[in-house]
Amino acid sequence: MTLMAIIYPKKINNERMSNQMKTRFFRPLTCLLLFTGIHGAFAQRVINNAELKLGKEANTFINKVQLVSPDKQKSVALNDGNYKINNSVQKASITLLNKFINGTVSVQENGHTRTDYVILNSAVQSMKTFTDEVMTVDINRKDTEVHFKEYYVNGKIKAEGYMSLDQKKHYGRGITKSYDEDGRLQKISNDITETYTDFYPNGYKKSVSGPDIQETYNETGSFSNRQYRKNNIRYVDEYADGKLSTRSYDHADKSEVKEYYSNGLLQKKEVIKSIQGKLRLLTYNKAEKLVNNEPYEPASQINQ
To answer: Over the stretch 253-294, which tens digit does the pLDDT of each residue have?
Structure first.
């Protein structure tokens, strides 16, 4: 279809065309020609005295892209226009408008690795890294987050996740999932809650660690040990065959408590408590009735 056919979807008698219809059809054409004229005014120029400065690693999507001297010691100011950079390290095609940088740049890091960037308003929007022409990193900005994927050279996923760019919410933190070369989930790192989960090759949880929790599991996915805090009391649970066996914790009065369970039901409770300056071992049955009260000596003192 020709440009005229797009502008005029049916034959119109110019003599009878109203001023309103003329305005409707000619305004888009005028804008198109005006934009083409402006763009054409910025003929691309090759610059040899500057290159783009990009942030490293996590700062790639945080730092603003800058034009600097080849030794990266000074900022370089250029007029609005289209520019091309072509040296042994960078190949870029950029447009400067109102001091903002837009365009693309490829950075050759060594003989086998190349990273391609897309820049919008002096901020990196996407980043793709290739090793021997095989993509190993793919990162994209989405609103206030950066979403990323990393690949093994065999093409299978190595890691994926996101990082927040919102300075009012979890800035610089995110969640990452890591995989082995066979595509099996190995670890989930949650930097927002500071909780980290490891997995067995069969997919079951292996361990969970965080500020107020420590958990270990056996290869069938059941608990082995669990440490957690509740109502300012830290509990340590031990499991046998996936069922709670013992639970230990310290009371606010500094007494030490150990509970014994069978099939998830309390069977006995022992409390080591200071009474009138002397340690006593108090034993309770499953009805929590005191059945024994005897002196207690720590194992370290008995061995002496």
So the answer is: 889 999 999 998 999 999 999 999 999 999 999 999 999 999
Strand partners, 239: 244
User: pLDDT above 70 covers what percent of the chain?
Assistant: 85
Per-residue model confidence (pLDDT) at position 220: 93
Q: Which of 173, 181, 216 is nearest to 198 (CA)?
A: 216
Taking a C-beta distance cutoff of 8 angstroms, is the pair 31, 39 a contact?
no
How far is CA 157 from each of CA 181, 250, 285, rounded to the nearest angstrom?
Answer: 8, 45, 54
| Beta-strand runs (E) in 36-122 | 45-46, 51-53, 66-68, 81-86, 90-97, 100-108, 113-120
In DSSP terms, 85 is beta-bridged to 92
How many other C-beta atoms can be found within 10 angstroms of the C-beta atom of residue 96?
A: 19
Distance (Å, whole) CA 22 – CA 3: 16
Q: How many CB atoms lie within 10 A of CB 200?
A: 17
